[in-house]
Amino acid sequence: RFHIYRISETHHVIMDCAAHLWEDVEISTSLLLNPEFCVSDWYAKRCEPVRGIPPRLRRCRQNREAMGDALGHHVAFLLNRERRFPRNHSTNRFSCERIETEGEVLYEIIDQELDMHLWTNEWFLCNEKLNITHWYARNLWKGYIRLQNVLLEREREWGDNHLQLL
Cα 159–165–166 angle (5° rounding)? Predict the structure, then answer.
C-alpha cells in the first residue's frame, strides 16, 4: 500500500496507493533513520485533518509502535532472499545489527552460515544505487582470496621448515 522514495538528501515522500485523491506526504530522512520513531502514528497525525477523521477516533488509531531499524531489516531481507551464495541452507542466514558509536552509526552484517562479519556505515547502505547482494558477493570473494593467500603462505612455510629438517 505504501511506497517511500527519496526526493532529496534530507527528505523522503510517503505515497499512499490506497489514497489516490490525497497528496503524498513529505518526511525528513533523519526521522526514517531513527529506530525509535513511530512512523505510523506520525503519518496518521499528518493525514487526520485532511481525511476528516473525528477527534474522538484519532487516539484509537494510534498504535505507538516504533518502526525499529528499517535499514537493517531491509539489508537482511535483501541478502536472505538471494539464493546464489555458497552454502545457502537457511532462510535467515543474514542479520544486520545497528551499532551506534561516537557520532557515527555502523552496521554489522552477519552471515551465519559462513560466520562472516562485515561492517559498513549507515550512509553507505542508504545509497540507492548500491546493489547489496553484489557488494556482499564481492566482499565474500575478497575474503576467499585472502584466505587462499594465507593458506598458501602457511603451506610454503611448512614445506620450508620440513625441508630444513632433512
Answer: 95
C-alpha cell, 6: 527519496
Distance between CA 69 and CA 15 in Å, rounded?
20
Three-class HEC string of 42-96: HHHHHHHHHHCCCHHHHHHHCCCCCCCCHHHHHHHHHHHHCCCCCCCCCCCCEEE
- pTM of the shown model: 0.67
Taking a C-beta distance cutoff of 8 angstroms, is the pair 95, 80 a contact? Answer: no
Intra-chain end-to-end CA distance of the chain, in Å = 74
Strand partners, 119: 108
> pLDDT tens for residues 5-33?
788 888 888 887 766 656 788 888 888 88
Indicate if the alpha-carbon torsion angle 22, 12, 81, 37 is positive or negative: negative
